Amino acid sequence: MVSLLRWNSVTLLLAAWLSACSGIPATYHTILSPAEEVSSRSPLYISIPQSEHTEEQKILLVLNRFGYGPRPGDVERIKKIGLVSYLREQLSPETVPDPDVERQLRDFPTLTMTTSQLMSEFPDPDQKLSPEMQKEMFPPEKRPARLLMELQEGKLIRAISSERQLQEVMVDFWFNHFNVFWGKDADRRMVTSFERDAIRPHTLGKFRDLLMATARHPAMLFYLDNWMSVRQDMAAGGGGQGPRGLNENYARELLELHTLGVDGGYTQKDVIEVARCFTGWTIDQPNKVGSFIFRPFAHDNGEKVVLGHRIAAEGGERDGERVIDILVHHPSTARFIATKLVRRFVSDDSPPSLVQRVTETFKRTDGDIRSLLVTIIDSREFFAAENYRAKTKTALEFVASAVRAANGTTNGSPALVAAVAQMGEPLYLAFAPNGYPDVAGPWLNSASLLNRMNFLFSLMANQFPGTRVDLRLLLEGANRRDRAQLLDHLSIGLLYNQLNPESREIILQQLNKPGAVQVNLDGRLSDPDIEKIAALVLASPEFERR
Question: What is the pLDDT of residues 410-424, one digit of tens each?
Answer without folding.
Answer: 999 999 999 999 999
